[in-house]
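Figure 6 in text form: structure in, sequence out.
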């Protein structure tokens, strides 16, 4: 185990999100951060609530502890009353890291509590979340601000949002994320054909839920569809409140729209690499990993001018107002019909994406752990 400034960092890392039917960005965060922390010298023990499904393959070789109970009972109890206690097997950890701001477990003795708050989308766009999740997120963020010795956020945008809710700025640490999908060497054309995706195409990747702003995206795409040969591909699992999206897709309109459903990592990489452009008009993101994944593959990006997305994309994407269908359409038209503009975006995006690494995320996280340990020992 690496010794950092005299501190041996033994960490209990909450890993429930890896079992969710739609793991999303938090699931990616857990799967990437745990190995990177171990590579950086931390002794990592994973903990989770009770699941019947087998553990993902990436967890092989990690110590793991099961907390009796389901997320439906544990998460509200942890957030609101700080009970039940974590198993004794985690008592030797100096740090307990809650990786999902919906669940803030208790710590014992002089353990340091670290909580990652990925975003405050539930606060900014409450109608985009089921009521039970909105209430749970609110309770979890309240508990995190009150009890955590360190609060990790993926962007300065989320840091500002969290401090507006009363978080102590001295406890807030920005730990940016990194591209999460390996770039493969196989020819992507075969996978794209097998998935039934007509080329050329414009690609969206993410959970199909209201916050991703897909209804406006479809309307913007249909405005430009008569002028371009591109189809629109929506790659991702269905999320909550899908009726409005289904209704919009059921309306007649120009162009072609393909929903792939869940795709594995190899097929997702292929979809990115064959895409003519990538679009991510989300209403609000704490970071926006798909934007980096597209940039890392040399795909021109159109994304939102709000929340963390300009911070991540910089001047390497066309930024549009996600509430303005006409502006989204204008951005799509430009990236699909102006090869010079697209090439310029790509040239700037590749080095920017390469600057984000999970090793850097782990280093920043370990530094936050040390700060939390000092705070807990004070």
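Output sequence:
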């Amino acid at each position: 185990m690496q010794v950092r400034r005299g501190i041996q960092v033994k960490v209990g890392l909450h890993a429930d999100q890896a079992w969710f039917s739609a793991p999303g960005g938090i699931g990616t965060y857990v799967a990437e951060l745990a190995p990177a922390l171990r590579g950086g010298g931390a002794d990592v023990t994973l903990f989770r609530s009770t699941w019947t499904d087998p553990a993902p393959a990436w967890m092989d070789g990690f110590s793991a502890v099961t907390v009796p109970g389901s997320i439906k009972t544990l998460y509200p109890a942890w957030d609101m009353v700080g009970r039940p206690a974590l198993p004794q097997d985690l008592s030797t950890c100096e740090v307990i890291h809650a990786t999902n701001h919906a669940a803030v477990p208790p710590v014992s003795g002089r353990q340091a509590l670290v909580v990652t708050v990925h975003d405050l989308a539930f606060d900014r766009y409450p109608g985009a979340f089921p009521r039970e999740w909105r209430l749970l997120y609110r309770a979890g963020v309240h508990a995190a601000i009150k009890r955590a010795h360190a609060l990790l956020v993926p962007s300065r945008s989320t840091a500002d949002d969290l401090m507006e809710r009363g978080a102590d700025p001295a406890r807030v640490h920005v730990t940016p994320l990194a591209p999460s999908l390996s770039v493969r060497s196989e020819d992507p054309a075969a996978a794209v054909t097998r998935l039934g995706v007509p080329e050329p195409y414009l690609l969206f990747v993410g959970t199909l839920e209201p916050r991703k702003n897909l209804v406006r995206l479809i309307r913007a795409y249909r405005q430009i569809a008569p002028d371009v040969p591109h189809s629109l591909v929506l790659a991702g699992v269905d999320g909550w409140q899908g009726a409005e999206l289904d209704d919009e897709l059921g309306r007649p309109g120009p162009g072609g729209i393909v929903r792939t459903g869940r795709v594995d990592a190899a097929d997702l990489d292929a979809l990115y690499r064959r895409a003519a452009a990538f679009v991510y008009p989300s209403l609000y993101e704490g970071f926006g990993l798909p934007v980096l994944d597209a940039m890392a593959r040399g795909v021109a990006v159109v994304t939102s001018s709000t929340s963390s997305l300009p911070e991540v994309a910089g001047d390497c994407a066309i930024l549009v107002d996600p509430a303005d269908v006409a502006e989204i359409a204008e951005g799509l038209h430009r990236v699909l019909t102006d090869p010079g503009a697209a090439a310029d975006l790509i040239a700037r995006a590749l080095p920017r994406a390469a600057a984000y690494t999970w090793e850097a995320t782990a280093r920043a996280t370990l530094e936050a752990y040390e700060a939390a340990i000092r705070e807990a020992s004070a």
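Caption detail: The CA atoms of residues 29 and 177 lie 8 Å apart.
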